[in-house]
Amino acid sequence: MGKLISIGKILNFHGIKGEVKVGFSAGKEALLKTLKKVFIFQNDEKIAYDVESVRFHKNFAIIKFKQINSINDVMAIKGLLVHIDEATLKSGLEADEFLISELSGLIAYDTNGEKIGIVSGVGENKASNLLEIEKTNGLKFMVPFVKEWVPVVDIDNGKIVINMLEGIESLFTTQGNQQ
Question: What is the distance between the alpha carbons of residues 80 and 107, in angstroms, rounded to a whole number?
Answer without folding.
Answer: 35
